[in-house]
Design brief:
It contains ten helices and 13 strands. It is an alpha/beta fold and 329 residues long. Helix 1 (11-23) crosses helix 2 and helix 1 packs across helix 3.
C-alpha cells in the first residue's frame, strides 16, 4: 500500500472539520456541504482518532474548538483560502475588479456604507462585495481579502493596521432622557440597560463599562440583544440605555435621534483595524480599497473627541504585542 505523501487525514474529513469549526456548528457545516450532520460527526471523529486528540468540546449550543482544534483550523483556513485564490485566478485568467470586505453589521451600517458613494464616484470600475457577520471566524472565508475588525490588534496570520480608536458612553432616546432627568452615573445600574451579548470577546459590556467609570454594580438586569444595531433601535424606541460607541453613534447623537446620558465617557479598550491575510498578496482592487479606507480613517481621526473624553483614549494599543501597527498619519 502506497503511503500518503503528505501524511494527512482524509481531505474530505478535513473539509468537514473546517466547515464545522468555521460555523461552530455541525448542523450548519452539514447544510453547507450538503451532507447529513451524522456524516460530518463521523468524519470529524475519524480525524480525532487519527490525531489522538479531541478537536471539539460539545455543548448544548454547538461545538467549541480545543487548543489542538484551533491550531488545525487556522492552518486549514489559511491553506483553503490560498488554494481558492489560485483557483479563482486560473478561472478568471486576469485580475478581477471585485474585492470582498468583511465587517460587522453595525460597522457596515453606520460607518462603511454611508461612505461608499465616494468609492462609486472615484472608482466606478471597482465592485465591492460586502460580507456582514457578527462572528469574526466567518471573516476567514476564502473570498474575503479585507476585514475591518474591532479588537486589540492581534490575529493569527493577519497583517493589521490600526485606523482609529473609540470612546463609549451611555445613550438613549430624548424621551427616555427626559423621564430620567437628574440621574447620575451612580444611578445607571438601576435603570433599564440594553446589553449586546453573544458577540466577540473584545466587545465591552455594561459591567466593565460601569467599572471603568468608577461604578461598582451588582448583578445587572435588562434586555439582551445579539446585534448592536438592534439594541440601538430599542434605545431609540425609549426602551432603555445602550452603550454608545462614539465612532458609530456620533451621527445619531448629532441628528438628535439619540442623546448622551450622564457624564460617563471612557476610552474603549480596543481599536478598529483593517486586516488581511499575511500570506496572501492583495489584489489591485483590494489594495485600492485599503488606501481608500485609510483615507477615510484619517478624516475620522481629525474629528473632535466627545465632550469629557480623556486624551489617552488609545490606551497604548499600538504598543501591545501582536500584529497591530500604530495609528497611521
Amino acid at each position: 500500500m502506497v503511503r500518503r505523501y503528505y501524511d494527512l487525514p482524509s481531505l474530505s474529513a478535513l473539509a468537514m472539520f473546517e466547515a464545522a469549526a468555521r460555523h461552530s456548528s455541525v448542523k450548519l457545516a452539514a447544510q453547507e456541504l450538503n451532507v447529513t450532520p451524522g456524516a460530518v460527526s463521523r468524519q470529524i471523529k475519524s480525524v480525532e482518532l487519527e490525531l489522538g486528540e479531541p478537536l471539539f468540546l460539545r455543548n448544548g449550543k454547538g461545538v467549541v474548538l480545543t487548543g489542538a482544534g484551533e491550531e488545525l483550523f487556522r492552518a486549514l483556513a489559511s491553506g483553503f483560502s490560498r488554494t481558492s485564490e489560485v483557483v479563482r485566478s486560473i478561472k478568471a485568467g486576469e485580475t478581477s475588479n471585485n474585492v470582498a470586505i468583511a465587517c460587522s453589521d453595525v460597522f457596515a451600517t453606520m460607518w462603511l456604507i454611508p461612505r461608499m458613494p465616494d468609492v462609486w464616484t472615484r472608482h466606478p470600475r471597482i465592485f465591492v462585495d460586502h460580507v456582514i457577520w457578527e462572528n469574526a471566524r466567518n471573516y476567514r472565508r476564502s473570498d474575503v481579502e479585507l476585514r475591518v475588525q474591532y479588537g486589540l490588534g492581534s490575529w493569527v496570520d493577519e497583517t493589521a493596521e490600526l485606523h482609529f480608536d473609540d470612546w463609549i458612553y451611555p445613550v438613549c432616546s430624548p424621551e427616555f432622557a427626559r423621564r430620567h432627568a437628574g440621574a447620575t452615573i451612580g444611578d445607571l445600574a438601576d435603570l433599564p440597560l440594553l446589553s449586546v451579548e453573544w458577540v466577540e470577546s473584545d466587545w465591552l459590556g455594561w459591567e466593565e463599562a460601569l467599572l471603568r467609570g468608577g461604578v461598582r454594580a451588582g448583578a445587572l438586569r435588562g434586555r439582551r440583544f445579539g446585534k448592536f444595531s438592534i439594541a440601538l433601535q430599542a434605545a431609540m424606541a425609549d426602551q432603555g440605555l445602550v452603550i454608545g460607541w462614539h465612532r458609530m453613534v456620533g451621527p445619531l447623537v448629532e441628528q438628535g435621534a439619540l442623546v448622551r446620558f450622564s457624564d460617563l465617557v471612557v476610552p474603549a479598550p480596543g481599536g478598529y483595524y483593517l486586516t488581511w491575510n499575511s500570506t496572501r498578496r492583495l489584489s489591485d482592487a483590494a489594495a485600492l480599497m485599503r488606501g481608500w479606507i485609510g483615507e477615510q480613517a484619517r478624516l475620522v481621526r481629525a474629528m473632535p473627541r466627545p465632550v469629557g473624553a480623556r486624551t489617552d483614549s488609545v490606551t497604548a494599543i499600538s504598543g501591545r504585542e501582536g500584529g497591530g501597527s500604530e495609528i497611521p498619519g
